[in-house]
């Protein structure tokens, strides 16, 4: 390998490391929001869904930090799909309702959740692209 290819590989690995950490932070922020809402008194079906959301986000965050190679690519795709689904579920609840649940913008942390999850989609899309990018051979 030439010096240029070694530097490109190192900078690509550095970018991937930064994106993995940012992805884990976003996933943990999503988990924290939903966990807060569970302890804040959300009940019924929504409580169960939020607990499942917390568990999934924590597992995916751990995966983003510990997995490598192809498994990291799979974890990043799953994380991206998870955040998209989470945001879509909230938007559906805000508009037409979801599982009989109708949400309002003024409910606790709704605007913040939309912002965090939108940022999460961008971060995880970049992480997915970087993790799935194959090194080029000369």
What does this structure look like?
The chain contains four helices and no strands. It is an all-alpha fold. α1 runs antiparallel to α2 (44-66). The radius of gyration is 17 Å and the shape is elongated. The model has no long low-confidence stretch (mean pLDDT 90).
What is the secondary structure topology, with strand pairs?
Layout: H1 3-39, H2 44-66, H3 69-95, H4 110-132
Structural shape: elongated
Query: Spans of 5+ residues with little confidence (pLDDT < 50)?
Result: none
Output the radius of gyration.
17 Å
Order of helices and strands: HHHH
**What do the pLDDT scores average to?**
90
Helical content stands at: over 70%
* Tally of strands: 0
Estimated share of beta-strand residues: under 5%
Distance linking N and C termini: 9 Å
Largest sheet: none
Structure summarized in a few sentences:
This protein has about 140 residues and is mainly alpha-helical.
Features:
4 helices, 138 residues, elongated
């Amino acid at each position: 390998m030439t010096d240029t290819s070694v530097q490109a590989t190192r900078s690509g690995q550095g970018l991937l490391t930064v994106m993995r950490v940012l992805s884990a932070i976003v996933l943990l922020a999503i988990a924290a929001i939903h966990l807060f809402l569970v302890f804040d008194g959300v009940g019924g079906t929504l409580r169960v869904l939020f607990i499942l959301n917390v568990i999934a986000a924590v597992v995916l965050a751990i995966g983003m930090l510990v997995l490598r190679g192809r498994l990291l690519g799979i974890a990043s795709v799953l994380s991206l799909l998870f955040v998209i689904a989470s945001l879509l579920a909230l938007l559906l609840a805000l508009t037409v309702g979801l599982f009989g649940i109708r949400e309002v913008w003024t409910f606790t942390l709704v605007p913040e959740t939309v912002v965090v999850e939108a940022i999460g989609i961008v971060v995880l899309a970049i992480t997915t692209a970087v993790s799935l990018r194959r090194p080029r051979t000369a």
